[in-house]
Amino acid sequence: VGLCMERSLEQMVGVLGILKAGAAYVPLDTKYPAERLGYMVGDAKVVRVLTKVRQREALPKWARELALCVDEEAGEVAKRPDMTPPRAVPPGGTCYVVYTSGSTGKPKGVALSHAALCNLLLWQRAHSVKAEATTLQFASLSFDVSFQEIFSTWSAGGTLVVPPAALRQDVPALLDFMVSHRVERLFLPFVALQALADAVAHGASVPSSLKEVVTAGEQLQVTPAVVAFFEKLPGCVLENQYGPSETHVVSAHRLKGPPASWPRLPPIGVPLPDTKLLVLDGQGRLCPIGVAGELYIGGAQLAQGYHERAELTARRFVPDGYTREVGARLYRTGDRARWR
Question: CA dist 162 to 6, 48, 130, Å?
């Protein structure tokens, strides 16, 4: 089921409703060109698109026939039972399909199972500074970190705070919003963290309620502004997480000690439970500690593959020669790494 909405309460309800119905959700960003949205709808074999009347116009004309406008159908929906439908979803069933741009520019759908994502959520709940923390829902649904924001919070009984879309582009106003809602946890790419730190350095509000900041998606850099930001937040931790869309998060490193002592380029850390990271050379052999090679990922976190792309799946998800487990696979990240 496609979900084509701007950030809102209805968008969050849509995610939960799709999953409770036993379906998988496909995020469709209203800012994408109609041609790209149409490709995603067709490639994922979407049977319905949850949207709103105004946002339906983002879809190509043929895809609008699949639209169910929640604002238009609100009265009818209100008549339906409010009990959770009796759906038996297997652990290996698809939870979501997110599309990433391929090297050729043709988007490819990455399908993640409930089992893989539950592995992440169980770890996140046990590992977080405060599992039920009030969390800012910052990421677009088109990025996998949004799942982590939403469901690590909901599953622990926490509060998810959804800022208006305009605030994502107005950093001082976003900081004011975080202060007023007493946000305790953030999931941010480094560029957004740097923007917050720069704004605070120039007099913007300090979100003193923060207890945990998690960065992922790009190389974390501990810049002077980031150091100064965390020196103003003595009770807050900074964690660097790593994981491509094909696995979601697979490793984490929490920075220790005073911010001024943090390394400029922190490591990506150690593997999550039921996950393994292998550094292999060009012949598929294990690299010694300190020697760089390609990073391969195995274990519970692997995606089912690329939706309707069997050949590409076979190239990137290869048999795991380092286990006796039948059918075990490794994902070739293409990233260079080394153990130290």
Answer: 11, 25, 19
Phi-psi region of 174 (alpha: psi -120 to 50; beta: other; left: phi over 0): alpha
Phi, psi of 251 (to 5 degrees): -150, 160
Closest CA to 96 of 151, 134, 35, 135: 151
- SS3 label, residue 106: coil
Sheet holding 275-280, edge to edge: 275-280, 293-299, 329-337, 317-319
Q: Interior CA angle at 130 toward 266 and 197, to 5°? A: 45
pTM of the model: 0.93
- 81-104 confidence digits (pLDDT tens): 878 778 788 999 999 999 987 655
Whether 116 and 147 have beta carbons less than 8 Å apart is answered as: no
109 DSSP β-pair partners: 99
Residues of the chain with pLDDT > 90: what percent? 90
Question: CATH top-level class for 1-89?
Answer: alpha beta
- Position 164 pLDDT exceeds 80: yes
Per-residue pLDDT tens digits for 245-264:
999 999 999 999 999 999 99
Say if residues 248 and 148 touch (Cβ distance below 8 Å).
yes
Largest CA distance in the chain: 63
Q: In the chain, where are the structural domains located?
A: 1-89, 275-337
**Amino acid residing at 242:** Y
Which CATH number does 275-337 carry? 2.30.38.10
| Residue 270 CA to its chain's centroid (Å) | 19
